[in-house]
């Protein structure tokens, strides 16, 4: 039985699927006006872990992650780049999907684009309008009338915050809107992309798209709705208001939110300009290092992006790959193994990944200690380490590749190393132990460490400073 912290009730609750062994999961995706950054990566990677894990424990997971491909920011950026909005959004979707692939994310079952859901969006606004929850303002925009929904603010538990005039004054949302009513349908200005609607040509507001797409795909059967914690207000608060008013009653069972990635005491975000793109991080770090950095803290906690924390992540992942070095997977039964069971129980407790990683490091230590005396046992444990790490989306690489990454060694140097290793192999074959040791020392003086395994000798750089 898996327990998940439900933002709605602020407590851990048992995951009870609406339909038997099926989980419908909707996660708010990217607004594609620029490249994705590490803040986005945290949400993308965490829900990838949720997706992998729920499937592994036997659920059929319908994972939907939307793409916001029309938005004010997209229009503005496309205009600046002298492109159409869809040229920009298509280019950014392409880059986003490349990033996701590099980070070893399993694609969601469905990635709906807002522009493909205009009918659903317009239908939902129409229902809200007919029920008296929406009105047209002087700018010909359609707005949600919050005075018609008495529970506004209950979801984000910020109702007291709204009512404090001090906070209202400083809250950008209020500064912009003067009242809390938010846009459902934005009337198009000239030269803006637009879609026909009963209220004239325009485009949807940001919040209505997720309510309408989610309802269009899952109806009222959404088990999990996820996103970053910065979406709790106003995005998810507004989603709840729209969905409850349009279709009466809750549409989502559980809400899950990932904590923010901080950089120099501020939330990493494009609007603040303090961000690192996924691409720039991938140039420097192996995808597993990024995944580890973003999942080794509990998903609800805040994390700080620093060079030191990324380096620590590198050394942590290196320990795991080092344990796998020279081992091979065996066709064994492991589902009663105590490490395996402990790992599952950590994950079943609201995806406690820090605890899950601690189990992987214990396994790694055991494997290293068995390598000298009992290779069969080392191989058995390495099989379990691989299976469990793969659930977190890491350790798919060949250990040699990881450990020798970014060597920047010339082909001549690599050839020299391989030749010495081959000569040493011959020495060993003919029991010339002294000559073999000399070659090992020679390689050591070059900073190369050897590991002899059943499958041959492997080498890696001792203090590989480059990550
Ligand atoms: Zn959303």
Automatic annotation (TrEMBL):
Main location: cytoplasm
Motif 'KMSKS' region boundaries: 267-271
The protein's Enzyme Commission number: 6.1.1.16
GO cellular component: cytosol
Chain ranges for the short sequence motif 'HIGH' region as given in the UniProt record: 30-40
Gene Ontology molecular function, alphabetical: ATP binding; cysteine-tRNA ligase activity; zinc ion binding
Keywords associated with the record: Aminoacyl-tRNA synthetase, ATP-binding, Cytoplasm, Ligase, Metal-binding, Nucleotide-binding, Protein biosynthesis, Zinc
Superkingdom, natural source: Bacteria
Cofactor names: Zn(2+)
Residues annotated for ATP binding in this entry: 270
GO BP, one annotated term: cysteinyl-tRNA aminoacylation
Pfam families tied to this protein: DALR_2, tRNA-synt_1e
Subcellular location: Cytoplasm
Family: Belongs to the class-I aminoacyl-tRNA synthetase family.
Subunit structure of this chain's protein: Monomer.
Name of the protein in its database record: Cysteine--tRNA ligase
Organism: Wigglesworthia glossinidia endosymbiont of Glossina morsitans morsitans
Taxonomy of the source species: Bacteria, Pseudomonadati, Pseudomonadota, Gammaproteobacteria, Enterobacterales
């Amino acid at each position: 039985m898996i327990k998940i912290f439900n933002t709605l009730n602020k407590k851990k609750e048992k995951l009870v699927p609406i339909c038997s062994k099926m989980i419908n999961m909707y996660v708010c995706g990217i607004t594609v006006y620029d490249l994705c950054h590490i803040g986005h990566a945290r949400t993308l990677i965490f829900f990838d872990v949720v997706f992998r894990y729920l499937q592994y424990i036997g659920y059929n997971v319908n994972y939907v992650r939307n793409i916001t491909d029309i938005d004010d920011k997209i229009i503005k950026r496309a205009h600046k780049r002298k492109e159409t909005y869809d040229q920009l959004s298509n280019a950014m979707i392409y880059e986003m999907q490349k990033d996701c692939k590099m980070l070893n994310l399993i694609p969601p079952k469905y990635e709906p684009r807002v522009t493909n859901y205009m009918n659903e969006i317009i239908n939902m606004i129409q229902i809200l309008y007919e029920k008296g929850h929406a009105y047209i303002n002087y700018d010909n925009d359609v707005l949600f009338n919050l005075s018609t929904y008495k529970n506004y603010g209950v979801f984000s538990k910020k109702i007291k915050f709204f009512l404090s005039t001090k906070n209202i004054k400083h809250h950008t949302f209020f500064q912009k809107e003067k009242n809390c009513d938010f846009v459902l349908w934005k009337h198009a200005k000239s030269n803006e992309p637009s879609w026909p609607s009963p209220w004239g040509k325009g485009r949807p507001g940001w919040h209505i798209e997720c309510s309408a797409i989610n309802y269009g795909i899952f109806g009222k059967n959404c088990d999990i709705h996820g996103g970053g914690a910065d979406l709790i207000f106003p995005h998810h608060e507004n989603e709840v208001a729209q969905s409850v008013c349009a279709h009466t009653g809750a549409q989502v069972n559980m809400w899950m939110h990932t904590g923010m990635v901080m950089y120099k005491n501020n939330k990493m975000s494009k609007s603040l300009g303090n961000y690192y793109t996924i691409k720039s991080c991938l140039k420097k770090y192996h995808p597993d290092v990024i995944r580890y950095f973003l999942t080794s803290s509990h998903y609800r906690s805040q994390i700080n992006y620093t060079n030191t924390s990324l380096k620590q992540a590198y050394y942590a992942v290196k320990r795991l790959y080092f344990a796998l070095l020279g081992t091979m997977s065996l066709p064994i039964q492991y589902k009663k193994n105590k490490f395996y069971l402990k790992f599952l129980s950590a994950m079943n407790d609201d995806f406690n990944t820090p605890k899950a990683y601690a189990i992987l490091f214990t396994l790694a230590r055991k494997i290293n200690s068995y390598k000298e005396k009992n290779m069969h046992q080392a191989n058995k444990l390495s099989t379990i380490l691989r299976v469990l790490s793969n659930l977190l989306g890491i350790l798919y690489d060949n250990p040699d590749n990881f450990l020798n990454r970014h060597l920047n060694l010339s082909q001549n140097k690599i050839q020299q190393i391989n030749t010495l290793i081959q000569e040493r192999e011959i020495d060993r074959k003919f029991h010339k132990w002294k000559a073999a040791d000399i070659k090992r020392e020679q390689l050591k003086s070059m900073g190369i460490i050897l590991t002899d395994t059943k499958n041959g000798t492997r080498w890696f750089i001792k203090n590989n400073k480059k990550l």
